[in-house]
Amino acid sequence: MGSSRSNRGESRNALLSHFSFDPLYHNLNHASYGATPKPVQLRLRSLQDEVESCPDRFIRKSYPRLLNANRAAVADLLRVPLDTIVFVPNATTALNVILTNLEWHDDGKDEILFFSTIYGACGKTVDYVVDSRRGFVSSRSIPLVYPVEDADIVARFETAVHASRDEGRRPRLCVFDVVSSLPGVKFPFEAMTHKCKDLGVMSVIDGAQAIGMVDSKLDMIDPDFWFSNCHKWLYVPRACAVLYCPERNQHLLSATVPVSHGYVKKWLPTPRNHFVSNFQYTGTLDFSPYLCVIEALAWRREVVGGEERVQERCVALAKKGGQRVAEMLGTEVLDNKTGTMTNCAMTNVRLPIRVVATTNQRKEESCISGDASQAGRGEIPVIQGDKVDSVAQWMMDVLLEQYRTFIVVYGHGNHVYVRLSAQVYLDLGDFEWAGRTLGELCRRVAEREYLRNTLD
Fold this sequence. Notes:
By secondary structure, this protein is of the alpha/beta class. It contains 13 helices and 13 strands. A hairpin with a 2-residue loop joins β12 and β13 (about 415-420). The radius of gyration is 23 Å and the shape is globular. The N and C termini lie close together (about 10 Å).
């Protein structure tokens, strides 16, 4: 069952051949794990072969030199000093480094602020810090249900800071996104960073989806901490992330995760550039992805036309593709009135699924669409609010197993949405295929196929 196709004939994008996808697979979920062009994959494998030929020579001699060259490439891209940039495996590790290093006042008034749309692993990291430093630090979630205007988001943050202080708390830092994961929308990170400075709150920017997708000139933004996954939108192999810490805050990050050879006891003098040397080697890992940044940037420049071209192409396709899918389903793209939420390479489209608090009669289990001209025409499924997560999981499983794709399905603000990623290897035809596929899948939900609990 399903409209999975026998070939990728619908896509006319020549750049698709630069990637290693299964010919039957539509990668509409680049945001989760990224993808690496074949030339960059070859660089990765050549590095792995080199280290196997003589591990000691490579790890002790070649690796530090190559690491510094790739750090320099990222520093140039972000327009920051070389000694403010280090690599870690992923964005979650970066946040762990920051939050587990910070020292909290013993009066118990310190507070971590974050928005309710925080990435799940980051939210758990905040929970862990609060739990493990019980009595020293607390947390405060700022509720956020989209669509919301950027100015309102900043105003809610300011209100939360004042509320914290009115309650006798000390708002030490705020964790916020560049582009949020769910929903996949552009966050007003520049305005938030400025507001943090005004209010005396440290800015911890989760840019997991930033580098390679959104212009990130950190010299202009000047956050207290910033991190981003290079293995997502920059096309670096997994796992590679960059952690930026300005010199003024480097003394706060005394240990890596895990703590390793670079740690210096606090009562001993700290060597110059300790921040960089501390993160250079944190135990035996495959550091090859860290050494592929230069090749990834070269591919973007030589094949696609450079950073601006890559970003413009992806954002434009996300906007156009999202609107097309919404038209096919008879719904709309999640955006605010000023259109700032969609200034990124992801788009969120509401599914023609009605969410209700309770279902009193069988006739409420489906309703007739008011516009039979749309692709989602016919019965619109109605599901109870407490069933959204399970139905969404069923839909994602079916998409992966039967339609040879993966599209994130999630509930937000009493609606069900899908998040679609645009990329240089996709074109409008891929989004139109997604629209047809999602329309068919919604009809299967209307038939309550998810209750069979089978993917046969």
